[in-house]
Amino acid sequence: MSDPQDKPETTPELTPEAKAVLARARKSFLVSMGLLVVGLIAIGGALVYRASQSDGKAGGDYVIAALKIPAGGEVVSAVAADGRVTVTYRLGPLTSVRIFDGKSGEMIREVPVVSE
Length: 116
Prior knowledge:
By secondary structure, the chain is an alpha+beta fold. The protein has one helix at 16-52, and strands spanning 74-81, 84-91, 94-101, 107-113.
């Protein structure tokens, strides 16, 4: 086996142009990495801010346990928005929409869906 110290270490000297290109590349890399770090810190700060701003009203508008639709009705969709629950159901050939109050569960309105 050969001894690594037997061979003289010969690294060619870089030209001034090559040194300038390497210096520019290093600066560009440092600027890019700095922007990346600042961006990650900003995103992390936004996530922490959003997590700390707990809204006590989330889900508080809806406390009903059950909604009433006619027996044999098939629920097509249910949407909760603005403190109301809108249920679309099908009963045989008839399709209807019922709007319920989110707190009391009381039916506010029923709208039959008819085809033209």
